[in-house]
């Protein structure tokens, strides 16, 4: 971490970026880092590849959409946050190549240490948690603004402090962040309890059509592209796999949805099954509790083969 601190201190114009399809940990971490670097006299820019999904606009923070052209970019350090590998930077990898001076701060076990200096803590619940400790070490003042960004980052990656990745340290950090002045209840209401009406109606339809297999241990939802048009929901919006995950008795929850020409499969485990093994059958991967893959064919055919692999996994465990 000392090498990273040195680089952060030396930099005057940092380019900050996180994984594509930014989630709240990614965005909150980028914006918190930008604030911290400003305290050090840096003039940082947060780069994204595409506008983050509209539901995350409440986080605030400024970003620049990278247009793919590096000729105008004059940064002296590339700060990569919450990003497990180079591929997940998308076209911004060209910024990293041009700058040729980079740090990588992340909490994904699978991080392949792609930067010049790397700090990866797979035990940390969120990148925001690591940044809190980094800022403390650097004597960066945790302002109200920084506290709010980090709180949102940590709350998001812990499912509002309820996933198994929450440690006593997570709660101590969160408690310290709450010592600052920001509306934490409002932030989490917007993060977890607010959805566009169209999306809620689409979820209602999905809930009405949950498929149950293996004596209720496997719960599956299927989403075709027509549903998005029917309900006026933008494709890619919405986190649907948590719907089957909530069904009582579920060990494996699966969301199978058509996305452009392919079929995206998301798996969640409620405990005993390592779903990254199941995803591997489709060339995918991830974590024991959350994994994903892509496939071709009809929704029904993919569902059939997914259920087959789930059945095998349950049998192997029994
Ligand atoms: Mn994260």
Structure in a nutshell:
41% of the residues are buried. Helices cover 39% and strands 18% of the residues. The protein is built from twelve helices and twelve strands.
Provide the list of bound ligands, each named once.
Answer: manganese (II) ion
Number of domains: 2
Task: Flag low-confidence runs.
Answer: none
Helical content band: 25-40%
Encode the helix/strand succession as letters: HEHEEEHEEHHHHHEEHHEEHEEH
Largest sheet: 6 strands, parallel
CATH class of the largest domain: Alpha Beta
**Spatial strand sequence of the major β-sheet:** 3-2-1-4-5-6
How large is the radius of gyration? 20 Å
CATH architecture of the largest domain: Alpha-Beta Complex
| CATH homology superfamily name of the largest domain | inorganic pyrophosphatase (n-terminal core)
Proportion of residues in β-strands: 15-25%
What is the straight-line distance between the termini?
44 Å
Based on secondary structure, the structural category is: alpha/beta
Number of helices: 12
State the CATH topology of the largest domain. Answer: inorganic pyrophosphatase (n-terminal core)
Average pLDDT confidence is: 95
Number of strands: 12
Looking at the structure, what is the overall shape?
Answer: globular
């Amino acid at each position: 971490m000392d090498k990273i601190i040195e680089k952060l201190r030396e930099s005057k114009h940092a380019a900050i970026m996180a994984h594509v399809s930014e989630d709240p940990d990614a965005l909150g971490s980028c914006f918190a880092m930008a604030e911290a670097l400003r305290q050090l006299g840096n003039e940082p820019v947060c780069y994204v590849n595409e506008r983050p999904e509209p539901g995350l606009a409440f986080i605030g923070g400024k970003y620049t959409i990278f247009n793919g052209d590096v000729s105008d970019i004059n940064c002296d350090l590339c700060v990569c946050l919450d990003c497990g590998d180079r591929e997940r930077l998308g076209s911004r990898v060209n910024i990293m190549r041009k700058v040729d001076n980079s740090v990588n701060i992340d909490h994904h076990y699978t991080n392949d240490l792609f930067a010049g200096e790397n700090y990866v803590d797979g035990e940390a619940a969120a990148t925001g948690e690591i940044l809190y400790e980094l800022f403390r070490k650097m004597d960066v003042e945790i302002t109200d603004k920084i506290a709010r960004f980090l709180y949102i980052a940590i709350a998001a990656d812990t499912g509002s402090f309820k996933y198994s990745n929450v440690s006593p340290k997570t709660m101590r950090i969160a408690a310290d962040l709450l010592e600052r002045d920001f509306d934490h209840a409002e932030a989490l209401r917007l993060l977890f309890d607010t959805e566009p009406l169209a999306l809620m109606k689409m979820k209602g339809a999905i809930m009405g059509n949950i498929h149950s297999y293996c004596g209720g241990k496997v719960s599956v939802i299927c989403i075709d592209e027509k549903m998005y048009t029917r309900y006026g929901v933008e494709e890619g919006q919405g986190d649907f796999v948590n719907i089957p995950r909530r069904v009582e008795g579920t060990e494996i929850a699966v969301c199978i949805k058509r996305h452009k020409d392919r079929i995206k499969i998301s798996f969640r485990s409620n405990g005993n099954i390592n779903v990254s093994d199941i995803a591997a059958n489709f060339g995918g991967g991830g974590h024991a509790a959350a994994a994903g893959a892509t496939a071709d064919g009809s929704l029904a055919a993919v569902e059939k083969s997914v259920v087959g692999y789930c059945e095998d996994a349950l049998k192997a465990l029994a």
